[in-house]
Amino acid sequence: MSARIVSLPYGKAIMEVAIPENQLIGVYSPRDIPPVADIKAEIRRALAQPIASAPLRELVKGKRNVVFVADDNTRLTPTDQLIPILLDECNAAGVADEQITVIIALGTHRFMTDDEILAKFGEETVRRVRIKNHPYKDMAALVDLGVTDNGGRIFINRDVVEADFKIGIGSIVPHHIPGYAGGAKIVQPGVSGEDTTAYTHLLSVRAPRSYLGVLENPVRADLDLMARKVGLNTILNTVLNRHGEVVEAFFGDVEQAFRVGVKRAAQVYEVAIPEEADIVLSSSHPCDIEFWQAHKTLYPSDLAVKAGGIIIIVTPCYEGVAKTHCDILAVTPHSSEHIRNLVSAGQLHDEVAAALAIAWAQVKERETVFIVSDGICAGEAAKLGFRHFASAQAALDAAIAETGPAARITVLTHAPDMLPVIRK
User: Fold this and answer.
1) Which residues is 313 bridged to in the sheet?
2) In the CATH hierarchy, which fold is given to the domain comprising 39-268?
């Protein structure tokens, strides 16, 4: 029986696995769309062709306090190349660098270090403007903007609220909570308080399955509402290929430019698969830092596998399970229903973590999850409700032993940035 050797990204390394040819449905990746020849030229083109918006120079003219809200180092957006162009546009409109601040949209991620900020934003941006981490736990640094129609309280970074011009900078990619990252997501969870983020995350798990790839959903509606309340003026979003290179840029109205960009993102990330698999083998790349990011591997895998099948996650998780949600392993052993009951009873102080624990439980209640990781030990994996293996080959061999020699196998090489669609 012949085998195909498949290489999976494993952080900066590669992990190989031999898969029986007669069992392999296919090896799938985001479409390998070529990048633009010149990123800066593409950004200038997007700024010159705003979507449902006036040009940036016109929008920002006369403003005194400008904020760029930009994603952090868990995202591949090339902010080091985007922001200097935006700064030059602001300067041309009469807004000096001293009037501009970059707020890093951390959500509930840990603060970026000075070295990480330099690597992400580039020497020119670091030299020209102030760059600040978002302090999501500091209530004094947040402003209460009321409630959503569903009763969620809206706490937003004070620097962002008080600025008289705000632009969101990020990338558009399928995401399990609001359907797609990008657009208003830079506000929530990007620069929101912990309670607001808990609300939207818990809202997302009221559905039995993730909203991955579902453009219009209750979470997106609330994100757009929050962006309007904050007064987010405009966005600059990129769509990237699987190598993190810019395919196209979109500038303009927060909602309309985002939705135009989603159409392009779907062309990159949506993959047609002819059948559901018994086993899905998935790399977490590029979300490799900790499981708080790598968990995004679960939802595309869930779409590609049969109910009752096995998902194998291959992820380095250099920083373990979750740097800023250290107590999550206390709740992950429980069922989704039990965790919901703990939330309803007010017994969990970290409701953001609870929401993700519910999302993980919903997947585990449909499928079995194996994990291959140097950063997560067997004991931590057991608390997550996963079975730990030392290599992808060992995990796959065990999965085949459990599902049988006729088991059908799908491989997702960049699972967090993929949207599998079963087309029989």
Assistant:
1) 282, 371
2) Rossmann fold (3.40.50)
